[in-house]
DNA sequence: CGTTCGATGCACT
DNA sequence: GTGCATCGAACGT
């Protein structure tokens, strides 16, 4: 995944990130997963994009070169990771919202708090949600602004088959709900449970999440 | 089933 | 001081 992949319209990048693999190599081992859900945040005119507030110390990575990570801290306890897109100087990025775990599943269970009340029980819950996946992969502000092509935190193409996707409004925001800029793999159990704020319509068409009855 | 709400820290007004 | 690109426990029905 060279930087050219990211130097394209953000919605195209979001679609093409689906099926790529996010990896994080740490002293504890390699943890990775297939990207199954992402969201686009595009420009200062997008009210939900952090760049709507302009260039600040926090949002500077969005204005930087495509292909870098934009990691930020939210709600007092969560880290969220984005891939910066578009041309340098134009603030846009794709938020990675969910992964289907591949490598380091035991490590991910440890990081999610194996044995504690907050621990998850199923592998498909490990990376379901943007804060859950950063915790499972050990991503924090130390990875802010790193290159996603050459760093321990990287996105690679493992030749996964192109799964059918659907688009919906983005999750967890109060503005910009008219823009259907969330893309996800239809029917994949690792996609975050959309807990839409009041008034958000159900996702677009498709077979719908197929819960394989146990 | 459904909805509400506390945890928890920081950037920005 | 306010408001988060969240999560999950704790309620209510």
Summarize, please.
This protein has helices spanning about 5, 10-15, 60-65, 105-110, 130-135, and strands at about 20-25, 30-40, 70-75, 80-85, 90-100, 155, 165-170, 180-185.
List its traits.
214 residues, alpha+beta, eight-stranded antiparallel beta sheet, 8 strands, 14% helix, disordered C terminus, DNA-binding
Provide the low-confidence segments as ranges. Answer: 196-214
Q: What can be said about the biggest beta sheet?
A: 8 strands, antiparallel
Estimated radius of gyration: 16 Å
Q: How many domains make up the 3D coordinates?
A: 1
CATH architecture: Roll
CATH topology: 3-methyladenine DNA Glycosylase, Chain A
Would you mind describing this structure in some detail?
The structure is a single chain. With 214 residues, the protein is of the alpha+beta class. The protein has helices at residues 3-6, 10-17, 60-63, 105-111, 130-137, and strands at residues 21-26, 29-42, 69-74, 78-84, 92-101, 153-156, 165-168, 182-185. Strands 1, 2, 3, 4, 5, 6, 7 and 8 form an 8-stranded antiparallel beta sheet that branches. β3 (69-74) and β4 form a beta hairpin. The radius of gyration is 16 Å and the shape is globular. The N and C termini lie far apart (36 Å). Mean pLDDT is 90; it is low at 196-214. The protein binds a DNA duplex (13 and 13 nucleotides) through residues 39, 41, 48-50, 53, 56-58, 72-78, 80, 82, 95, 97, 117-118, 129-132, 170-174, 195.
């Amino acid at each position: 995944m060279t930087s050219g992949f990211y130097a394209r319209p953000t919605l195209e990048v979001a679609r093409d990130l689906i099926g790529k693999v996010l990896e994080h190599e740490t002293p504890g081992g390699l943890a990775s997963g297939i990207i199954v859900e992402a969201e686009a945040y595009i420009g200062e005119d997008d009210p939900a994009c952090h760049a709507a507030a302009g260039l600040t110390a926090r949002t500077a990575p969005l204005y930087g070169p495509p292909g870098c990570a934009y990691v930020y801290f939210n709600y007092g306890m969560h880290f969220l990771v984005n891939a910066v897109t578009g041309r340098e100087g134009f603030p846009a990025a794709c938020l990675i919202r969910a992964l289907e775990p591949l490598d380091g599943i035991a490590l991910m269970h440890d990081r999610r708090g194996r044995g504690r009340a907050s621990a998850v029980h199923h592998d498909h819950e490990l990376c379901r949600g943007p804060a859950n996946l950063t915790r499972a992969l050990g991503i924090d502000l130390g990875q802010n602004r790193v290159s996603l092509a050459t760093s321990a935190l990287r996105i690679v193409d493992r030749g996964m088959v192109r799964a059918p996707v659907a688009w919906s409004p983005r999750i967890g925001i109060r503005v910009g709900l008219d823009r259907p800029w969330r893309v996800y793999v239809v029917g994949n159990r690792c996609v975050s449970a959309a807990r839409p704020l009041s008034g958000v319509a159900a996702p677009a068409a498709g077979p719908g999440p197929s819960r394989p009855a146990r």
